[in-house]
């Protein structure tokens, strides 16, 4: 018997069977970090294979909190009344630009995907209300 915690692929298999394991989709603000509990072909891949041993086994998909992005640049283009914010973030994931006037109530302005290098960029048209705060976070 193969039990897969936080993933799919479990069931009754004979010894030596090659079983495909797939991790569940990460919850908001989390990302897949690996498999524990058994030897899998690729422990850092969310989909991998497992060779069933002669006894029951349990494998678990592990997740961790996404690290906070770091704003690495802000550019204000006065002639166009635009602001560009660049951040270093976890690669290949969606990130949101949020705004607030009081640092308590935050509204999402837009969502962009980070590049494979972990760069995410947002451009916002500036308005007359310049008393705003901005931050980048996970959706």
**What's the SSE pattern?**
EEEEEEEEEEEE
Distance between the termini: 37 Å
By secondary-structure content and strand pairing, the structural class works out as: mainly beta
Instruction: Report the count of strand segments.
Output: 12
Number of structural units classed as domains: 2
Q: Assign a percent range to the helix content.
A: under 10%
Low-confidence stretches: none
Helix tally equals 0
What's the story with the biggest beta sheet? 3 strands, mixed
Order of neighbouring strands in the sheet with most strands: 1-6-4
Binned strand content: over 45%
Overall geometry comes to elongated
What is the typical, i.e. mean, pLDDT?
A: 92
Rg is 21 Å
Set out the fold topology.
Blueprint: E1 2-5, E2 7-8, E3 18-23, E4 30-36, E5 47-51, E6 57-65, E7 70-77, E8 82-88, E9 94-100, E10 107-113, E11 119-125, E12 133-137
What does this 3D model show about the protein?
There is one protein chain. This protein has 139 residues and is mainly β. The chain has two domains: 2-65, no CATH class; 70-137. 0% of the residues lie in helices and 53% in strands. The chain has no helices and twelve strands. Strand 7 and strand 8 (82-88) form a beta hairpin.
Short description:
Helix content is 0%, strand content 53%. The protein is mostly beta strands. A hairpin with a 4-residue loop joins strand 7 and strand 8.
């Amino acid at each position: 018997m193969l039990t897969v915690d936080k993933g799919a692929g479990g069931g009754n298999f004979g010894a030596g069977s090659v079983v495909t394991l797939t991790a569940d989709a990460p919850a908001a603000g989390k990302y897949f970090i690996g498999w524990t509990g058994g030897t899998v072909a690729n422990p850092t891949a969310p989909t991998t294979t497992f060779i069933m041993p002669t006894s029951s086994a349990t494998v678990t998909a592990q997740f961790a909190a996404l690290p906070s992005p770091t704003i690495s640049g802000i550019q204000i283009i006065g002639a166009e009344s635009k602001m560009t914010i660049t951040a270093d973030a976890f690669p290949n994931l969606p990130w949101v630009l949020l705004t607030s006037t009081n640092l308590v109530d935050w509204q999402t302005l837009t969502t962009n995907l980070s590049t494979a290098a972990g760069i995410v960029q947002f451009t916002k048209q500036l308005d007359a209300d310049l008393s705003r705060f901005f931050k980048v976070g996970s959706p």
